[in-house]
Amino acid sequence: MFALPMIISSPQYIIQCYFDWYAALVHKNELNEGANILFQDISAGGFIKRVFHLPDLSNNVVLIPAVVLFFLQYTRLADRYNSRYRLYILCSTLIFPVLFSTSSESPTYIIAIPAVCIWYVMQPSTRRNNIFMFFLIFLISFSHSDILTPWFRRNIAMPYAVKALPCLVLWLVIVYQIYTRKYLLKKDVSPAPVKELEPVAVL
Fold first, then answer.
1. CA 69, CA 63: separation in Å to the nearest integer?
2. Nearest residue to 133 (alpha-carbon basis) of 152, 115, 110
3. Residues 6+ apart with CB under 8 A from 87
4. Four-residue CA torsion sign, 62, 68, 69, 71
5. Mean pLDDT by 10 residues, the chain (203 residues)
6. Rounded distance between C-alpha atoms, residue 159 and residue 163, angstroms
7. Is 83 exposed, middle or buried (0-12, 13-18, 19+ CB in 10 A)?
């Protein structure tokens, strides 16, 4: 993949493009963590920096452990053909780039919403899971809207990157479920018992 573009251009030009691309990404990352912080870096790192007032915290402090946890999920090679395992990996993969990128904005979370829904339908139908799902959708979808009032958006949601919190909690739950092989426990979909009809004579 690194060398394929060299088929239509010189190796020197392609290599220089990669260096220029890296420099542009570094500069963009600095801008994301800078003056426009209210609208950018709505990520796990941004959430931690704003809530704990650590503006100089390196993004690598959050990113490196997250990358390690992410790749360790692929160690369940014995279950690689299990459809539920694959769906859990899909959920984790959809959330990861949104949650750990300094370029994340409020609209970026549309990528994470499908992961939230896929994860939910694979869980047992319990009150705890239903409340957790409400918490997820409520903060991810509406924390930057007028439904929670403009005051909440200006003073809570944006300054503290609250939108990242439910996704961070869910991603950690997914990681835990993969490590403990919870994906092997299927959702209980047994039908409700059918009430037998009374004999005609009784009716």
1. 10
2. 115
3. 118, 122, 183
4. positive
5. 89 91 80 62 86 84 94 90 93 94 86 94 90 89 79 83 91 94 66 52 52
6. 11
7. exposed
Alpha carbons 178 and 123: distance in angstroms, whole number: 13
Please report, for the chain, the start and end positions of each structural domain, with discontinuous segments joined by +.
33-183
User: DSSP string covering the chain, please?
Assistant: --SGGGGSS-HHHHHHHHHHHHHHHHHHHHHHTTTTTTTS--SHHHHHHHHTT-TT--THHHHHHHHHHHHHGGG-GGGTT-HHHHHHHHHHHHHHHHHT-TT--TGGGGTHHHHHHHHHHTS---HHHHHHHHHHHHHHHHTTSGGGHHHHIIIIITTTTTTHHHHHHHHHHHHHHHHTTGGGS----PPPPPPPPPPTTT-
pLDDT at position 194: 47
